[in-house]
Write a structure and sequence with these properties.
By secondary structure, this protein is mainly alpha-helical. The protein contains seven helices and no strands. It starts with a helix and ends in a 28-residue tail after the last helix. Mean pLDDT is 75; it is low at 5-9 and 155-175.
Length: 180
């Protein structure tokens, strides 16, 4: 929570975004994009309310109230950050494991091909080869699924960002019960 003294020095939207920032955990770049998008949406809504005749303070208060409570919004955004982190982790696993066949062949070459024709060596080589391939495939699958999850199943699907609308919770978003 943002201390009351800070709330007095900050405008309503910045205080809301600061509180949302403290509630979220995940990749910095994705989190910064989400916070910038929330701030821009809130500012646009407040501008529209101000154009409709409200003073700035009331316009910001109404925009923040209609956007939703921080714990609820944080849970929706956290779902998206979790998908982004999963994709990032899967890509890291993919690149690390992509080097495995090269290192395996280099090690075999440096060892002078010792035991290359033995049944035990062939079993180990086949096992490592198949497991590496399966893991690479799984990493690509997870990275792709997480990318589609962020793009199509994200928690903010259906929000328009216009005054009077609030982000809708999709059926795919995490049912947060105070976890965020």
């Amino acid at each position: 929570m943002v201390p009351a003294r800070e709330l007095l020095r900050m405008d309503m939207i910045e205080a809301y975004v600061a509180e949302l920032d403290k509630a979220l955990r995940g990749p910095r770049a994705t989190k910064a994009d989400l916070l910038a998008e929330a701030r821009d949406g809130l500012l646009d809504a407040a501008d529209a309310y101000e154009d409709a005749g409200l003073d700035r303070r009331d316009a910001e208060r109404r925009a923040v109230a209609e956007f939703g409570a921080v714990p609820e919004i944080a849970c929706d955004y956290q779902t998206e950050l979790g998908l982004a982190q999963g994709r990032r982790t899967a890509l890291l696993i993919f690149f690390v494991l992509a080097a495995q066949p090269v290192l395996w062949r280099l090690t075999r070459h440096l060892a002078g091909g010792v035991g290359y024709h033995s049944p035990g060596y062939r079993l180990v080589e086949e096992t490592v080869s198949w497991m590496g391939s399966a893991t690479l495939f799984a990493a690509i699958l997870v990275a792709t699924a997480a990318g589609y999850g962020v793009r199509y199943l994200g928690a903010r699907r259906g929000s328009s960002g216009s005054p009077g609308s609030s982000p809708s919770r999709s059926a795919w978003s995490s049912p947060c019960s105070g976890c965020c």
